[in-house]
Amino acid sequence: PAADTLPALMVLNARLKIVSGEDTRQVSLPEIYDGPYQTNLKPHELISHITIEKMPKEARCHYFRLTR
């Protein structure tokens, strides 16, 4: 199982809302990604939202996953 959506979310400058009890913070995806199967989230933290900026009306995106 790979993180197939990570490259697409990084290209789209996704922002993550991270919650922990009463605390929240917003970070970009590269800020928490430490490598395959690894993040620097603390054990008590949870990603609650992923936000992507609205693209211009004429913009288009496509994502293709190729496998063997």
Question: Can you walk through the features of this model?
Answer:
The protein is of the alpha+beta class and 68 residues long. It has a domain at 6-51: Uridine Diphospho-n-acetylenolpyruvylglucosamine Reductase, domain 3 (2-Layer Sandwich). The chain is 15% helix and 34% strand. The chain is built from two helices and five strands; from the N terminus they run H-E-E-H-E-E-E. It has helices spanning 6-11, 29-32; strands at 15-20, 23-28, 33-35, 38-39, 46-51. The strands form two sheets. It has a three-stranded antiparallel sheet. A hairpin with a 2-residue loop joins strand 1 (15-20) and strand 2 (23-28). The model has no long low-confidence stretch (mean pLDDT 89).
SSE inventory with pairings:
Layout: H1 6-11, E1 15-20, E2 23-28, H2 29-32, E3 33-35, E4 38-39, E5 46-51
Antiparallel strand pairs: 1-2, 1-5, 3-4
Features:
alpha+beta, 68 residues, 15% helix, 2 helices, Uridine Diphospho-n-acetylenolpyruvylglucosamine Reductase, domain 3, flat
